[in-house]
Amino acid sequence: xxxxxxxxxxxxxxxxxxxxxxxxxxxxxxxxxxxxxxxxxxxxxxxxxxxxxxxxxxxxxxxxxxxxxxxxxxxxxxxxxxxxxxxxxxxxxxxxxxxxxxxxxxxxxxxxxxxxxxxxxxxxxxxxxxxxxxxxxxxxxxxxxxxxxxxxxxxxxxxxxxxxxxxxxxxxxxxxxxxxxxxxxxxxxxxxxxxxxxxxxxxxxxxxxxxxxxxxxxxxxxxxxxxxxxxxxxxxxxxxxxxxxxxxxxxxxxxxxxxxxxxxxxxxxxxxxxxxxxxxxxxxxxxxxxxxxxxxxxxxxxxxxxxxxxxxxxxxxxxxxxxxxxxxxxxxxxxxxxxxxxxxxxxxxxxxxxxxxxxxxxxxxxxxxxxxxxxxxxxxxxxxxxxxxxxxxxxxxxxxxxxxxxxxxxxxxxxxxxxxxxxxxxxxxxxxxxxxxxxxxxxxxxxxxxxxxxxxxxxxxxxxxxxxxxxxxxxxxxxxxxxxxxxxxxxxxxxxxxxxxxxx
Length: 504
Description:
Elements: H1 2-25, H2 36-43, H3 46-55, H4 59-78, E1 81-84, H5 86-95, E2 108-112, H6 139-146, E3 150-155, E4 167-168, E5 172-173, H7 189-196, E6 201-203, H8 212-217, H9 224-237, H10 253-261, E7 266-269, H11 280-295, E8 299-302, H12 308-319, H13 325-328, H14 339-348, H15 359-383, E9 387-390, H16 403-406, H17 411-418, E10 423-430, H18 449-455, E11 467-473, H19 479-493
Protein name: Amidase domain-containing protein
Family: Belongs to the amidase family.
InterPro entries: Amidase_dom, AS_sf
């Protein structure tokens, strides 16, 4: 039985890869060099493209053509695409499935592989989920079509979604657009790779940094203008009309105005999680941001938050409270697992005195989490902060298979998910082999075991050119505020602002 299960797993992997190749081969009309029209579309603000389509629905086909070229080019370079929806997208444009009077009229949007689209698998990189096309669009897909967006591809993820890499047996390994030896991040890594190479808007999901990490490893949205416009469009439509778990909170323009107009902001700096200090490249990005904000006249304050280690402990224990049994149920015999996720599975299966999972113990962890959240709330009030800046990760992108050593380096993003704070990531600069070397007196042997794992992978020479960035953090349900403050940070950086990859 085990052998048969393994052979079935391999057959289904081949089927999905052959299916993808066939769908890409059918798009020969899109495999032409970028035209002047394509480059014009790529360079224009999203709101201008929307107005064009609202005035003439026929322009939607031009946008789909351009961004399909972008996706195919990105996939050739990084293996970022999973399901290819383009032929159906052509039909949706013609048959009235898309609302071309909506606020995202005609804008092609790529989707993380987890998001349901009628007629397509949501495999999440596991063969137990293939050959099971969805009977209906998921909530996000329906919302997107209702405001005029055109879903056109789905993108790669790590198996289990518990990794900053994006690789699995079904779709293979995605690579970083800046350096193929490195990961694009995860779990929304394929999305990050596509957007770095010219995609317009992408949809992901985040548990421990699944959007935040790809946003710095290989940026998620290409411009703050696009990100803000898209978020406003989605909230104005009303996510709560599609998903009962969403808060009924429309876009708050008054919050945007307040934080655009505020002359002097009070900015807290979260320099280290106390477990893994940021590497020289990541520290430099934080220092550049701090210096830019000072030059712009804003007030920088040191903060004394509750123990980040306590936060990482609670987040990890709650995430793995079932011993990862839910994840285990999806594995087939012989199915490859990400080394970082495999390490988490190992620790989750240790004896109960190491890893309690009873209902009583679970609720005790919940109580500790709520007390921890209260600690952050009180610290923020005492400090009188507008927002916090922090590294998104201790190191730049990890090399492939690096999560075995760096699996616990997620605290910088995981922490703010635990306390349910709004956070965004801005790429700031690139690793520089001259500026970002480890000090001559650096001794990895003096680090704690978790930090040693991360720093084993840090090499400024090999990482030269990889993006590094900064997190901008607000409090709970402050998305409009955080987006506005991200714009303020980017404006403060001025000429030092991050340079995007050219679309070629």
